[in-house]
Amino acid sequence: MTTPITLPRRGFLAGAGISLAALTLVGCQTAQDYANDPMGAANTFSKLLGSHGESAPVDETALGEGLYPRLVAQSGGAYSNARIQSAVRSFAQPLFRVSKRPFRWEITVLDDNSPNAWSLPGGKLGINKGMLRYVASESELAAVIAHEMGHAELSHQITELESKGSTDKLVAFFKDVAQREIDAKVSGLHDLTSRGLDQLAPAMSELITSGYSRDHEREADAYILTVFRATGYDPRQASAVFKTLDSLVPPGEDKTTSLFSTHPGTRDRIERLDEAAARLPAGGGASGSADFATIKAVFPTRRYYLRNPAEAS
User: Which of 263, 265, 224, 266 lies closest to 245 in space, CA to CA?
Assistant: First the structure.
């Protein structure tokens, strides 16, 4: 007697929204089959989705939740100010509600002075305390968060890892997820074995700190406008934070992150955002956020830091 394949409790296929139960339609009859031969199952599923160009099966929620504490630790750890953590989480909630994905969105302020932020699959975000120092308005902070949301919303991390040869690592990780579901030895995804995560963590860390492809950065930039239109921020303010970041990096320096990128260049991204925003109705410009006031009380935006970013502490 065969056992129907069941999807790990909160999992979906990257960008596809199809459960692993669909594998029964193409010859992978049991969950044990999948655990024993994940590459075979992935290849079978690739044939099913091949004409549609979808990704191989990946549980984005499990992947993001497994990697999140590792990447937070590697990024300086969580900033030890509960008031700031709470304010940033509260500020982000209206933005997260724009998402169409069934993620448990989460954001952590990182104890890192560099102006950067990142996101993982499944809606897990990190924002450096250094970034909070440079955002001079609510719309600038909202743009940073919305940009990183765009990468997760559109499954950019999964696509980039697959394109860079990490498909085998993704499959190995998902094998662990499937096997533990079969064994029923864990009560949640937080207890996943570390083997697959150990393999994926370096590749994910490199991705989120070095930046994405030209198309993915542009898509994440465009997602800022989606969030702004839904939450009342003025689209014409969407590019302001990129102008600030562009001023921080000396001309000619080869520096790339998700927010500051030489591919496409930051100025090119600003122009594209401004052109797209000009075609949209002006927003009311959300303002007066008590959460943002709390953030700025601890991290005031000072011109001195704009001139001397390395000395910000």
Answer: 266
Contact 71, 49 (CB under 8 A): no
Per-residue pLDDT tens over the stretch 171-203: 656 565 555 555 554 444 444 556 667 767 777
Task: Decide if pLDDT at 49 tops 50.
Answer: no
- Tell me whether residue 53 is exposed, middle or buried, using C-beta atoms within 10 angstroms of its C-beta: 0 to 12, 13 to 18, 19 or more: exposed
Looking at residue 251, what is its pLDDT? Answer: 57
Looking only at the bridges linking them, the beta strands covering 106-110 and 117-120 are unpaired
Cβ–Cβ < 8 Å for 124, 152: yes
The mean of the pLDDT values for the chain is 74
Per-residue buried b or exposed e for 134-151, using 16+ beta carbons within 10 Å of the residue's own CB = bbbbbbbbbbbbbbbbbb
How many percent of the chain have pLDDT more than 70? 60
Which one has a higher pLDDT value, 103 or 212?
103
Q: Give the type of residue at 202.
A: P
Sequence-distant (6+) residues with CB within 8 A of 100 are: 153
Cα–Cα distance for residue pair 183/186, rounded to 1 Å: 8
Residue pair 239/192 in contact (Cβ under 8 Å)? The answer is: no
Residue 3 phi/psi, 5-degree rounding, is: -105, 130
Nearest CA to 95 among 285, 224, 217?
A: 224
What's the chain's length in residues? 313
Highest mean pLDDT pick, 129-138, 168-177, 198-207 = 129-138
The pLDDT score that the predictor gives to residue 105 is 97
- In the sheet where 117-120 sits, what is the strand order? 106-110, 124-128, 117-120
Two tokens, residue 34: 């999948």
* CA distance linking residue 160 with residue 111, whole number of Å: 27
Distances (CA, A) of 297 to 84, 207, 292, 313: 10, 32, 9, 15
